[in-house]
UniProtKB/TrEMBL annotation:
InterPro entries: NAD(P)-bd_dom_sf, Sc_DH/Rdtase_CS, SDR_fam. Belongs to the short-chain dehydrogenases/reductases (SDR) family. Keywords: Oxidoreductase. It comes from the Bacteria. PANTHER family: ALCOHOL DEHYDROGENASE (PTHR42901:SF1). It comes from Psychrilyobacter piezotolerans. The keyword Oxidoreductase applies. This is SDR family NAD(P)-dependent oxidoreductase.
């Protein structure tokens, strides 16, 4: 059975992506670390359609052994991942002088290490499939330009961009396409408990961004390799 897989799929943009895909008749797997939130989101998504399958997976994608086990379980259960949406991430906003070891580790693990783990194992998985597959990566405009008070976040996103462009070159000509998306600010739970100083209530709606991403990934007749999404001024 064929599925779309979304990391960080329990809330915000990941959850909106899942909703869009389910309404299109796609089977969906969402991943998250918070079991309570995962169970709640999975239950809500199942209500949208009785025709598709929705699976919730509790996992820490920065732990490679957990990722390896997940992909091994896919093989056992005869599940094929056609599209991977690398969406998981978290932010830190503050002076470079305030950064702690915990924050460095947390930001790099959630935004970079987890993406590397999922992508590397997804490439192996997808290469064995007959159909065209896609790895859609939700980065940020912070992967394109350095921003004050976002030093570690930008470092993680720039690292992810370099990794993905290298992967794209490495697998060129095969059955896997790599799409990199650079959204501007979205009004999502990402901003909860973050003192960024931004007027986030004026940011884009996650459902609108999700619609553009899904269109680029599925509905478009030509390959969109890189996509910048910003609100209208």
């Amino acid at each position: 059975m064929i599925y779309s897989l979304i990391t960080g799929g329990t809330s915000g943009l990941g959850y909106e992506l899942a909703k869009k895909l389910i309404k299109m008749g796609k089977n969906v797997i969402i991943m998250g670390r918070d079991e309570k939130k995962l169970n709640s989101s999975t239950k809500e998504l199942k209500i949208i359609s009785q025709e598709v399958k929705v699976i919730g997976v509790k996992i820490d994608i920065s732990n490679l052994s957990e990722v390896d086990k997940f992909f091994l379980d896919l093989k056992t259960d005869n599940i094929e991942i056609e599209h991977l949406y690398n969406n998981a991430g978290q932010g830190f906003f503050g002076s470079v002088e305030e950064v702690t070891e915990y924050e460095i580790s947390s930001i790099l693990n959630s935004n970079l290490v987890g993406l590397i783990n999922m992508t590397s194992r997804a490439v192996t998985h997808m290469k064995s499939l007959e159909q065209k597959c896609k790895i859609i990566n939700i980065l940020s405009t912070a992967a394109q330009i350095g921003k004050k008070n976002e030093t570690i976040y930008c470092a993680a996103k720039w690292g992810a961009k370099g990794f993905l462009e290298s992967v794209r070159d490495e697998i060129h000509g095969g059955n896997i396409e790599v799409i990199i998306v650079y959204p501007g600010g979205m009004n999502t739970p990402f901003w909860n408990d973050i003192d960024s100083g931004y007027e986030f209530l004026t940011f884009m709606k996650a459902e609108d961004v999700a619609e553009e991403i899904v269109h680029a990934a599925i509905n478009h007749k030509i390959l969109i390799s890189d996509l910048v999404i910003n609100r209208r001024k």
